[in-house]
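Please think about what follows:
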Amino acid sequence: MTSLPIRQQAVAGSFYPSSPARCGELVAALLDAASQLPLPSRDVPAGLPAGILVPHAGLVYSGVTAAAAWRTLGVADTADTADDADDADDVDNADTAEGFDGPLTVVILGTNHVSRRLRGIAVCDTGAWAIPGAEVVVNRALASEIAALGGAFRVDPAAHEGEHSIEVQLPLLAAVAPGALIVPLAVAAGTGDEAIEAGDALGRLLADRRDAGERIVLAVSSDMAHYPAAADCERATERLLPLILATHAAGLAAAETALIASGVEGLSCGMCGIEPAVMGMAALRAMDATRALVLAASTSADAGGPPNRTVGYLAVRFDQPAY
């Protein structure tokens, strides 16, 4: 537990259960269901990925697809982080030099749904984020280092108030990687040069930390197409998927713009998290994490939502190529 300010739950009871017991039961069921999904390839790299793309809708809708992304972090890689949790308050004072042997840190790029004033990338440096029955501690040392990149980056915890795109990930993260730390980033940097430059700067920083032995994963939080019929929703994912798998930031931005302009009935966006997705693709490219594997894809209709008004979900794992 940390004595620093806590970011309180905003969507518990709507996007996921507020009861610790019920939330835990749902998360366990989602992870179990995700473990039964057929993979499009058996060639799943061992160990921690460099990054994941993960959806962020209510867990009853996107949860199995989201769980497919989070479970790839693997309990084995983070089993020793539970012992680190008692010392998590001191992360902001931790030695981040080469050889640092701290817990897993997940840097999460969230979509900005609610903050009308945010322009740029808001770094949250609170002590922790609350989830039902627990807290997920922020790696304040890395948060400060990211904020110090300058440009679009700034410390702004208030920009995260009310936002669900990062919060909804945390019960799943806490289940697969107990004791893991986070750096939450709310992204509203557009899809042009500013976003790509910010992603490149972030990716180079994270690559340096990983090269120094730190266990760091980049998570990009985004749903896919919003509100077309189920078949069109699936086609929208298929249209954007090659650019995601290629970690082609500018190409993804252009393809999403073209998709919106194509006149698909009911379509309001190709990715509701297109801004963190573009930034994330640039970051992953800078991390040399260009080996991508689709883990799961679905629509809200698959979870019982109306088939004529759907949202798409996609889970992708990113690693460095095997040389």
Remarks:
- Residues 11-38+48-319 form a domain with the Protocatechuate 4,5-dioxygenase; Chain B fold (CATH 3.40.830.10).
